[in-house]
Amino acid sequence: MQRVNEFELPFRRGTSGVKYLMRGPRIDWGVIVLQPGERLGAHYHNEVEETFYVLRGRPRIRAGDTVHQAFVGDVFRMEPREAHDVLNDAEEEAKLVFIKAPFLPDDKVDV
Fold first, then answer.
1. Per DSSP, what are the bridge partners of residue 11?
2. Measuring CA to CA, which of 1, 59, 85, 101 is 20 to 30 A from 39?
3. What is the pLDDT of residue 100?
4. Bridge-partner residues for 18, per DSSP?
5. What is the arithmetic mean of pLDDT over 75-86?
6. What single DSSP character describes residue 39?
7. How far is Cα 46 from Cα 89, in angstroms, rounded to an integer?
């Protein structure tokens, strides 16, 4: 058993960005908070699929060449090698859960 508390862990950018809650041994998962005007950054994974679940806000999700307006409760699953990004161009903070499987921490390719 492993226990963590989201509020005891830092975001990658201080108060926003990616926050891993658990890393391995079989999946990575955590939360992403994007302030208005912030984006995750376009990337893909060679072997990993990545799923996003929208908890708060109205971010836009780019999958390949298509941009989707996301709403609270929406789930988006990205296939391996499918370029994707999350952009918060709304006026409020966006918060998402992300899940990546299998656990391959060096599988990300920035585009």
1. 14
2. 101
3. 98
4. 32
5. 98
6. B
7. 28
Phi, psi dihedral angles at 79 (to 5 degrees) = -75, 160
For 9-39, write each residue's pLDDT tens digit: 999 999 999 999 999 999 999 999 999 999 9
Domain ranges of the chain: 6-105
Question: How far is the C-alpha of 54 from the C-alpha of 75, rounded, in Å?
Answer: 7
According to DSSP, the residues that pair with 97 across neighbouring strands are: 31, 53
* Class of 6-105 in CATH: mainly beta
Beta strands in 24-73 (DSSP E): 28-34, 43-45, 49-56, 60-63, 66-69
Report the alpha-carbon distance of residue 94 to residue 89 in Å, rounded.
9
Instruction: Check residue 82 and give its pLDDT.
Output: 98
